[in-house]
Amino acid sequence: MTRAELIAAVSSYFDIEELVCRHTFESFGRRSWQFLDTEYLATLLLIRRDILKTAMFCNNYAIPGNRQFTQRGLRCNICALVNEKTKAGRIYLTAHGQGKAGDFDCKGLTAVQARHLIEDNADKLPHPIRMEEGVTWLHIDTYDDGSGRKVTYFKA
User: Fold this and answer.
1) Mean pLDDT for the chain?
2) List of residues 6+ apart from 54 with CB closer than 8 A
3) Distance separating alpha carbons of residues 111 and 13, to the nearest angstrom
4) Which strands, in side-by-side order, build the sheet including 138-141?
5) Nearest 5°: phi and psi at 13?
6) Full-prediction pTM beyond 0.70?
């Protein structure tokens, strides 16, 4: 599958403004797809379409009246979460900042249930992933820790 075909497939499940912060979307609009990593997009598509088989929600700032999530996908350098860390003089290297991560709520599934389904189907994953444990959302990223495992867990 070419990158263009992959983006077309992913966009049948997600609008780009769900996957990037408001700043990025307001600056680049539909061109914001360029900032999302290809391995991440392929993995996100497979998890959504073939493993969880249910709606997944990331950012929702484009939907009025909801609790606003704005930094659950790609985070740019002016996002508050990034600014807080860098202003404190701390290094902030994150999969979110590199277009390789998202935090999701999954319709009809708790985060624990979604993580178990993904782990049970790890052999289907096109690339290794990490999932954050001990949180009420599903964090997935395509950082490869070199362990040779398809799924690893971390705590932030």
Assistant:
1) 93
2) 106, 107, 108, 109
3) 19
4) 56-57, 101-106, 138-141, 129-132, 151-154
5) -110, -30
6) yes
